[in-house]
Amino acid sequence: MGFIAGSFTDTPNQNQPEQWLQRIKQQAPQFFRDDLNVSKAGELSYLAFDKSLIAGSHYVIADEGGHHLAKDQLQKLAERFIEKGSSSLNQAEYPFNGLMFNQAKKELLLMTDFLGLTHLYYAQIPGGLVFGSTADAVIAHPMVSDEVSQQTIYDYLYFHHCPSPNTIYKQVKKLEGGQLLVFKEGKVTLSYYWVPEFSENRRVSNEEAGKILKEKLIDAVRQAAVGSDQTGAFLSGGLDSSSVAGALSEVYPGQARTYTMGFPVEGYDEIEYARIAVDRFKTRSNEYYLTPEDTVAAIPKIAAYYDEPFGNSSALAAYYCAKMAKDSGINVMLAGDGGDELFAGNERYAKQLLFDKYYQIPGLARILLKSGLTHAPQILLKNKIIFKAKRYVEQAEIPLPDRLQDYNFMNRHSAHDIFNADFLDAIDVNSPIKSLRDCYNRPAKAGALNRMLYMDWKTTLHDNDLVKVNKMCEMAGVEVRYPLLDKSIIDLSCQIPSSDKLKGQQLRWFYKEAMRNYLPDQIINKSKHGFGLPFGIWLKDHQPLKELAYDSINALKKRDYLRSDFLDHAIKMHQSVHAAYYGELIWILMMLEQWFQAKKR
C-alpha cells in the first residue's frame, strides 16, 4: 500500500509540479508521510512512497500492491522498456501498480496490477498528464478542475460507489484492474494488458487442485506477513477470513493474531463462528462490539476520508477492526476478500444459472409458455405457483448481465421519481448497464458463470470492497494485504471448471471440498452472511444517529440532484415496517451528503 503522485508536462513553469507535490506530501497520512520523497526526471515530477520499488535510470516506480517483486526484476523491466518501448512488454510483467517513464522518447506508462488492488487516478492537462494514488491528490493540481460529474452522482446511486473508469470529478479518470495507459505526444491510449483465460477442461483432479490451493494460500500469507507481533488477520467467521486466519496460524503456530467485530443485534452477529475458527487454529483473538455511538462518531470522519462518495456501510466495521489492530501494535492486516469472486460464493451466481434452464426448453414450447403466462387472467395469477412461473419467465427473458440488476432499486423505480428533471437532462441513465455489459463480454470463450465472476472482479472487488478495506485500514494507520488475491490463486481459480466451482446450487463447491477437514464443518456448512451493519435497525431507536442521517438527507434537498418528495419518502418508508431495507438507502444518501459537506461543497 504505497503512494504515488506526479505530473508529466512541458509547461514552462518548472516549479509548479514540485510545489504541488510538496503540498500533497503534507496532506498524506501521518503513518507514511515521512517516507514520501519528491523527485524529478526531466519533464516528470513525482512523489513516491519509498517502500515502493524504484528501478533506475528512467524509471520504473512500482507500488507492490500485494504482489512481491524483486529489485532486479524491475531493473530488467526498466532496461527493456528504455531500449524497446512499451511494445516489448507482455502481460506477465505488470504485477504492480505504478509507472514507467522513458525520458528520451517522452513516453509515460501507468499500469494497475491484475485486479487493481489499489487505484490510480489521472487527468489530462494541456501538454501533459497528472496522476496519483488518490483523486484528492490529482484535483489538488492547479491545472485540474474539481467540478463534480453529475453522471457519477447517478452512477453512485446505482452502484453505491463511483465506478471506474469515471470518478466523481469530470476531468479525473481512474484505471481499472489489468489496465495500461500510455501517454505520448499529448495523447492517452488505454488497453487491457490482461484479461483472464478461463478453462473448462480439468487439468488435475479436484483433490490435487485443493491441495495446491491450500499450499498457495499458506505461501501467500507467509509472504505477506511481517512477523507474529506486527501481523494480524480480519476474522468474521466466514470461509475466507477463516481460511486466511488458519493459514496465518500455520505460519505462526500459537501466535497468530485475529481481529473480529461483533454487533449486539440479533441476526447480524456472527462472532460465534469467529470463535469456532479461533478455537480450531488457536489464534490470539481480539473482539469488539460495535455500537450506535461508534457509528455516530465515525460517519463524518469516514465520509471525509474517501476520495469519492462511498456507500458501503461495512466500511464502519472495517475501520473499527483495523483501529483495534493498530491499537494493539499491528502494522499489517491480512484480509480475506476475493474468495467469493474467484470461486463462486454469491447466491446470485446460482440463481442466474437457474434461468439458463429456461433456454433448454424447445423454442416453440418456450414461446407458448411465455405467451400463456403473459396473458394469464389475474385470477390465475393469485395462485403462487403460476405467479412464480410468470415471474421466472419474465426474468429469464432478460439477458445477462442486465438480469443481475433486476432487483436494483434504480431499476424498480422511475428515474423521474427520484431525480430532478434538469439533472436527468445531463446524464445517461443507461450508462451503468452499458459498463456492465462491456465488462461481462470482455473475456473470450468464457461461460456465464466465469463472465459474472470477472465482472465482479471489477464491480465488487476493484470498485467496492478493496476501496472499502484499503481506505479504512489506511485511515486506521495499518497496511492491508490480500492473500486470496495472489496471482497464483487467481490463475488456479481460472483453471477450475465452472461445474466444480458451482455444483448445482452448491456455492463454492470446489473451495469447500478443498478446505474440508481444514476449516471447521460449522464454518464450511454455514449460510452466507457477510459483514453487514444493523444500521437500519439502530436508526429507528437511536436519536443521535437518526438526527445525523435525517439531517443529511434533508440537506441533500438543496443540491438539486434528487427530488424532495423522494427524499421524504425514503425517510417515511424507513420509519415504517421497512427499516432494514430502507436503512441501506438512508445510509447511501447520508454518506453522499456527508462527503459533500466534508469536501466543503
Topology at a glance:
Blueprint: E1 4-9, H1 15-27, H2 30-33, E2 36-41, E3 44-49, E4 53-55, E5 60-63, H3 71-84, E6 97-102, E7 107-111, E8 121-125, E9 128-132, H4 135-139, H5 150-159, E10 173-174, E11 179-184, E12 187-192, H6 206-224, E13 231-234, H7 239-251, E14 257-262, H8 271-281, E15 284-289, H9 292-305, H10 315-327, E16 332-334, H11 339-343, H12 347-356, H13 363-374, H14 378-381, H15 384-396, H16 409-412, H17 415-418, H18 421-424, H19 431-440, H20 448-476, E17 479-481, H21 487-494, H22 498-501, H23 509-515, H24 521-525, H25 535-541, H26 543-556, H27 564-575, H28 579-598
Parallel strand pairs: 13-14, 13-16, 14-15, 16-17
Antiparallel strand pairs: 1-3, 1-9, 2-3, 4-5, 5-6, 6-7, 7-11, 8-9, 8-10, 11-12
Helix pairs in contact: 6-7, 6-23, 7-8, 9-28, 10-20, 13-15, 25-26, 25-28, 26-27, 26-28, 27-28
What does this structure look like?
Helix content is 48%, strand content 14%. The protein is α+β, with helices and mostly antiparallel strands and 601 residues long. Strand 8 and strand 9 form a beta hairpin.
Determine the N-to-C terminus distance. 29 Å
| Quaternary structure | single chain
Strand order of the largest sheet: 2-3-1-9-8-10
Tally of helical segments:
28
Tell me the total number of β-strands: 17
Task: Calculate the mean pLDDT score and round it.
Answer: 88
Q: Assign a percent range to the helix content.
A: 40-55%
Gyration radius from CA atoms, angstroms: 25 Å
Query: Which structural category fits the helices and strands?
Result: alpha+beta
Can you tell me the residue ranges where pLDDT is under 50 for at least 5 consecutive residues? none
From the spread of the alpha carbons, the general shape counts as globular
